[in-house]
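Hey team,

Sharing the Late endosomal/lysosomal adaptor and MAPK and MTOR activator 4 run so nobody has to redo it. Sequence (97 residues) first:
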Amino acid sequence: MEKIPDQIGYLILTEDGAVLESGGELENDERIATIIIDLISLSNTVDPLAFGPNENFKKISITYDDHWYVICMSNKKIYVIKRLIQNNTGEGNAIAV
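Structure output:
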């Protein structure tokens, strides 16, 4: 997990929210783990008519101004990565308003 570019923290959770592994800014962060589990539960119940009965989330992205979270499930584990958003303002692409 440490090899992911721009990664500043990660969590690996069980399906019920127990922290299996963690590192960086998310090391042993039980509060974020609880929020992630609640978000997954919410996403699976948003609109049961729009999704099949056994269709669950595959990936959730949450974006802030300077970082973002990627949440996905694989092999009955939940992976959460916190990554920096790199601004390329030094290349002349910035527009001042």
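DSSP finds one helix and five strands in the chain.

Ping me if you want the raw files.
A.
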